[in-house]
Amino acid sequence: MALQGPQKTVLQLVGVVTLMGALAWASVPFYSWFCRVTGFGGTTDVAETASDVILDETIRIRFDANTDPSMPWEFKPVENVMELRIGETGLAFYEAYNPTDRVIAGTASYNVAPFEAGNFFTKIDCFCFTEQILKPGERVLMPVTFYVDPDITTDRDAKYVHRITLSYTFHETDLPEDYAALDSGSPEQTTVN
């Protein structure tokens, strides 16, 4: 049985809507994968161990800290600039302070500039991989362990990079249930596991 006029149009429209929905659903994971693989948009690489090659050539790393306009934390790098040999493991700290009278959860987004360096800036450990929760008046130091991959010196575009900026922006997120109960001042719960 062949579809006629309005039935054929409805079927085509349903197909287009389904295809558009599938593309929208897949776009975020695909874009994330693309950025991780290519370093596009300043997305960094991630490793579990330090580099086994350390060059005599150095590179300057600048640390930048920002908060979303609605995030009440104070957030800053402890050290603004660090110079390392390429391949050497670096350890930097950022400081966050919650000046409010409530528990606040936050997550950090990050990028690296220039974008050509993103694929060569490798994080070993970072506070951005987990949600951070600060109690009222709490101040914490958050470490970032990283290195710059020695392959940066042979990449067609990145070999001209001599300074890299690692930038974080903290955004407020919803509190987990056990912290939300603590924040509401519930007398039954005074400690958080």
TrEMBL record:
Superkingdom of this protein's organism: Bacteria
Topological relation to the membrane, as annotated: Single-pass type II membrane protein
Gene Ontology CC entries for this record: plasma membrane
Topological domains, Periplasmic: 28-193
Cytoplasmic face residues: 1-8
Main location: membrane
Gene3D superfamilies registered for this protein in UniProt: Ctag/Cox11
Keywords annotated in UniProt: Cell inner membrane, Cell membrane, Copper, Membrane, Signal-anchor, Transmembrane, Transmembrane helix
Subcellular location: Cell inner membrane
Assigned protein family: Belongs to the COX11/CtaG family.
Function as written in the Swiss-Prot or TrEMBL entry: Exerts its effect at some terminal stage of cytochrome c oxidase synthesis, probably by being involved in the insertion of the copper B into subunit I.
HAMAP family the UniProt entry points to: CtaG (MF_00155)
NCBIfam families attached to this UniProt entry: PRK05089.1
Name of this protein: Cytochrome c oxidase assembly protein CtaG
Organism: Celeribacter halophilus
